[in-house]
Amino acid sequence: MAFVTIPSINTGDEIKVENFNDFITSVNAVTSSINAENIRDEGIDRRNLATNSVQEIRVGSDLFKDSGDTFQVAGSTTSFVPINSTTTGLPIKVGVVNSKDDEFIMVNCSFSFTANNPKTFVETDNRGGQEVEFKLQYKDYVSGVVADIGGTKRAFNSFMSMHGNYHANLRYSCTIVAAFIPDSTTTGLHEIEVNLLGMDHYSNSNYPLGNCVVHDVTMFARVIKR
Amino acid sequence: MPIIIPTLTSGTLTASGVNSIFQKLEDFINGGIDKTDIDTSSKWCTERKIVRPEFYGSPAPRTLLCSSDLHSRYVGNNLYTFVVTNDITRDYIPIPGLSATIYADLNQDESSACLAVVNACWFCFEKEANSGNRNSRLAGGSYNRTVDQIESDIAEVASFKLYVNGTEIEGTERYLYINYDGFAFKNHSISAIVSLSRGMNDISVRVKTRADYHAGTTSEKYQILIRERNINIEVIYR
Questions:
Q1: Contact A142/A190 with Cβ under 8 angstroms?
Q2: What is the span of the domain harbouring residue B163?
Q3: Nearest CB to A49: which of B4, B66, B152?
Q4: Fold (CATH) for A55-224
Q5: What is the ipTM score, two decimals?
Q6: Chain A: closest CA distance from residue B90 (Å)
Q7: In angstroms, how far is the first alpha carbon of chain A from the final one?
């Protein structure tokens, strides 16, 4: 606690340098010692908080958005893979986001997708139309950990059959919002990259003939400080 | 910055010396305290130390917090379904319940812009006004729809986009297709980060209808219904 001693001088006392020096010493000791006992309840408002002290967003590498490109979902029936641009080959991802142990990374990912039926197969008793799955995965370049972000898997499919005996197309939008804490590292620091992964195929079938493209994408990450 | 007052030596106690001490103290107390004066040996700043939030209800629900503000709007039942047709407009128009005019409370001595996270979701579909005007071969219908005529480019009836202060936000377009007798319910969502200016800002999800027979389609377009919907906007200051 920062604590200042005021010299007590009574009428008729001799005023000495020492009286003031005790006071000066106590004032100089204030530096780096202001704590909870010096701050009244509800005494801290916005002007006392530094920029990015509660949450940090960098609109450079932490923000991905695209409305003019399409991104091909190329995962098979069994594995998720990055969703890459059909023009540049680059994936839908954000990062590297720098954080510390115990800080949350909050990710928002929102997009439209189009899965037109390639009309390779007509309807059957057991095979449906297009089926698409998405999830978020992070990589920590400090620890090397690559892990799914829990609870972010989303799946869409269609069994509706149209005139001509082909299943309907599948077009939707999807938003995934998740907060997670990466596994601790020895340095206490993290360099996090978050990817949107996908897979597509025919519903209830092993035929890897998914035809899904993602478009109109916004994805961003922020660090929630502790 | 940290306060440093030189100690006095014997015989130096003067009026100007005493005034100098109090002047330094005054400068320190009146705005001179900075982060180097704060005890960082432990995390002593608990919630109770932060100024309490302010909560406001209708007509502009919002929570004003120390580090951010949260604005919310919603329409919770179909008494307030928003209906639009291509007779009314074919340009993007704001959707009530998915629109808000909010105040970005930035001090004059800080940046003139800040970031905000916008999350919106809504339930929508197309519906014919006359049950005989159906885009399907179901009861009363007159067409046999193939896969290329449903949920396809030529079957598009409307699109949605997020707008901030009259400017569309990249990567937020969402699409609605002909109803096919109610099969084409759509639940759409947008999550985006946007930049706001100091003062008032208009944020809205907007809808645009498509013309009848556009892009070679044989179908007319009917009513676009936007049912239950909500939007929340987190203005981030710190």
A1: yes
A2: 47-236
A3: B66
A4: Jelly Rolls (2.60.120)
A5: 0.87
A6: 21
A7: 22
